[in-house]
């Protein structure tokens, strides 16, 4: 049996991945690194940064809360001071709190919009000049619930609807600078964040049952299966795709 060559299509490129300390973002950071990119991972707290660094010493770790513009600006400045370029931004940092309309309090609404929408915008703004210089790429992370209505997810869905609107508009705005902007739209994916959703065990099991009934491929996805498409959209060989939202959802989006 011959030796399978390790493909390094991202060799020489520099990526910044938000939400890299857990789940889909962590899998994307690892996959980009394995394919040759220098990867900077962003996380919001010192404690998650320390454990992420221990698991993935090959990733360079930075702390910034994406809802704080000054911290985001400082993190991007640190990347540029060290790496001198930025070829890709992956906006994975996100939170999800599910609740019916009457139980959706102001703090819960504001926090989800701040992390999922403002955080995505702050990072894109901070990275913009460097991405124009490199003719780089942005990959945003939406959710099936942005375009397939689901009860008790209206606020979260609205934040992801915003992410999809940003993606399409930025693709148009940045095309003349050679910057491609796309998004993935994952369906139910088993991640540490999903496992931590505060709900009684029996409700969690019932939700999983519901997923098995409604997802055509009849299971939850894995972080790696989803991250594969982040990496694919960012791949330098993908030159003619921008403004697209790709559903990575076991068929849920069309069911
Ligand atoms: N899992 C799913 O079923 C699913 C489905 C559709 C879409 N998505 C989307 O996919 C993305 C990742 O989800 P996941 O399930 O992998 O989540 P996760 O395991 O909870 O990871 C979330 C990541 O976001 C980071 N983060 C949260 N708030 C932050 C803040 N204020 N500043 C900086 N970083 C912050 C977390 O880092 P620290 O806490 O370390 O700061 C963590 O790395 C999210 O955008 C989510 O909406 C997930």
Automatic annotation (TrEMBL):
Q: Extract the InterPro entries matched here.
A: KR_dom, NAD(P)-bd_dom_sf, Sc_DH/Rdtase_CS, SDR_fam
Q: Which CDD domains match?
A: SDR_c
Ranges of residues in domain Ketoreductase: 13-187
Per UniProt, the keywords (alphabetical) are: Oxidoreductase
Any single GO molecular-function term of the entry would be: oxidoreductase activity
Q: Which domain of life is it from?
A: Bacteria
- NAD is among the record's keywords: no
Which Pfam families does the entry link to? adh_short_C2
Q: What are the coiled-coil residue ranges? A: none
| UniProt KW Oxidoreductase keyword | yes
Q: Which family does it belong to?
A: Belongs to the short-chain dehydrogenases/reductases (SDR) family.
Kindly give the PANTHER family that the UniProt entry links to this protein.
OXIDOREDUCTASE, SHORT-CHAIN DEHYDROGENASE/REDUCTASE FAMILY (AFU_ORTHOLOGUE AFUA_5G02870), SHORT-CHAIN DEHYDROGENASE_REDUCTASE FAMILY PROTEIN
Protein name (database record):
NAD(P)-dependent dehydrogenase, short-chain alcohol dehydrogenase family
Q: Which organism is it from?
A: Stigmatella erecta
Lineage of producing organism? Bacteria, Pseudomonadati, Myxococcota, Myxococcia, Myxococcales
């Amino acid at each position: 049996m011959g030796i399978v060559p390790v493909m390094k299509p991202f060799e020489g490129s520099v990526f910044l991945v938000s939400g890299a300390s857990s789940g889909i973002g962590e899998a994307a950071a690892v996959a980009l690194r394995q394919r040759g990119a220098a990867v900077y991972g962003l996380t919001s707290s010192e404690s998650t940064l320390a454990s992420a660094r221990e698991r993935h010493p090959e990733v360079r770790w930075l702390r910034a809360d994406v809802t704080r513009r000054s911290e985001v600006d400082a993190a991007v400045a640190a990347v540029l001071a060290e790496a001198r370029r930025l070829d890709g931004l992956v906006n994975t940092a996100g939170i999800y709190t599910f609740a019916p309309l009457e139980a959706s309090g102001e703090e819960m609404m504001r926090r989800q919009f701040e992390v999922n929408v403002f955080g995505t915008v702050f990072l894109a703004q901070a990275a913009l000049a460097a991405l124009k210089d490199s003719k780089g790429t942005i990959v945003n992370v939406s959710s099936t619930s942005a375009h397939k209505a689901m009860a008790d997810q209206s606020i979260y869905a609205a934040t992801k609807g915003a992410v999809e609107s940003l993606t399409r508009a930025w693709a148009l705005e940045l095309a003349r600078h050679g910057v491609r902007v796309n998004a993935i739209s994952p369906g139910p994916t088993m991640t540490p964040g999903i496992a931590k959703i505060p709900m009684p065990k029996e409700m969690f099991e019932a939700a999983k049952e519901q997923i098995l009934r409604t997802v055509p491929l009849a299971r939850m996805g894995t972080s790696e299966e989803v991250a594969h498409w982040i990496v694919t959209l960012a791949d330098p060989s993908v030159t003619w795709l921008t403004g697209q939202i790709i559903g990575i959802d076991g068929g849920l989006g069309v069911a």
